[in-house]
């Protein structure tokens, strides 16, 4: 599941989803999890030093009875703070959250991180996702 304003995190989410044979789902203001999951990949971008409040609200609906394990991914101009904040928020919810995460540069304002996520970022996301799943089996 992912929150993406400009499509970068969506690309990584879709790469992760295809690697583990599930569908990537966008988070909006009404998103909740209707049934328990063994492993949630959750991702988002960073906007003015913070995760988006839509992503935050969604995480605040979760707890360990509905999410057994969580892994965070994200894209950014340069700052991994949103990833750290997501991990901390999930841990505060007492969800078993991997300390490893996946991050990629994401293009912003035409000139920053041009062409990212690129094919290498996409491939790296797929490898990361497969390794996470292997580590939990
Ligand atoms: C309004 C806005 C604010 C941003 N603020 C930050 C920031 O504070 N730190 C950073 O590293 N990147 C920042 N970025 C870059 C985004 O995090 C980056 O483009 C990311 O890939 C966006 O993800 P998305 O395409 O999935 O929405 C910002 C981008 C936008 C559009």
From TrEMBL:
Coiled coil: none annotated. It comes from Clostridium omnivorum. Pfam families: Flavodoxin_5 (PF12724). This is Flavodoxin. Residues 1-85 form the Flavodoxin domain.
